[in-house]
Design goal:
CATH architecture: Roll
Radius of gyration: 19 Å
Shape: globular
Structural class: alpha+beta
Number of domains: 1
Helix content: 10-25%
Oligomer: single chain
Distance between the termini: 27 Å
CATH topology: Pnp Oxidase, Chain A
CATH superfamily: Electron Transport, Fmn-binding Protein, Chain A
Number of helices: 5
Number of strands: 7
């Protein structure tokens, strides 16, 4: 029985006669432990796309960026990434508190290639990795369940001109984003003195 295809996938595979190749791709490419090549691809990536859903299944997709290496493979089936200061909406991380299922899409635009990771996530504000990520508020750990590459055929080749000046890094203090200085938002910004510093971890590793 397939671990990645639901009845909807099967219905369309039957319609377009693609079940054989779909099954072969699952057999040959889908795995649950990171290879050395997987680790290298992930840890050189300066960004990824993050898919989450709330408790009712309503989806959300966001972009996460950092310096290369900001996503780390910790062991055979666990990776971690930091949550940096954002707009305070906590759409993605809020979803993960009520529904830990996560999808991650890594794309190399300079040398077209992509990797998908599906799994479950936990959040930690007392994670020992926090000390290694300046500017991080939380650490998200992901237990990978499905790791697989995707065909790069439709990836447009692009080049990174420069990394964002707002990207946290060791020995560097990023500037405040311009929108946080706008009058209509300035008085609503979080007061660091009111932050709840009580330790927590969502779920279990």
């Amino acid at each position: 029985m397939s671990s990645i295809y639901n009845w909807g996938s099967r219905q369309l595979q039957d319609q377009f006669d693609s079940q054989r190749i779909a099954d072969r791709l699952e057999q040959r490419t889908v795995h649950a432990t990171f290879t050395d090549e997987d680790r290298a691809f992930i840890e050189r990536s300066p960004m990824f796309f993050l898919a989450t859903a709330d408790a009712e299944g309503h989806p959300d997709c966001s972009y996460k960026g950092g310096m290369p290496g900001f996503v780390r493979v910790l062991n055979a089936n666990t990776l971690a990434f930091p949550d940096y200061d954002g707009n305070g909406m906590f759409k993605s991380l809020g979803n993960l508190l009520v529904n830990p299922h996560i999808g991650m899409l890594f794309i190399d635009f300079e040398h077209p290639g992509r990797m998908r990771i599906n799994g479950t996530a936990t959040e930690h504000n007392d994670d020992p990795l926090l000390s290694e990520y300046p500017g991080a508020q939380l650490i998200v750990r992901v237990q990978a369940e499905q790791i697989f590459p995707n065909c790069p055929r439709y990836i447009h080749t692009m080049q990174i001109i420069k990394y964002s000046v707002y990207t946290p890094r060791l020995g560097y203090t990023p500037p405040e984003p311009e929108w946080k200085q706008m009058e209509e938002f300035r008085d609503a910004l979080p007061d660091p003195r009111n932050s709840n510093t009580q330790s927590f971890s969502s779920g279990t590793d």
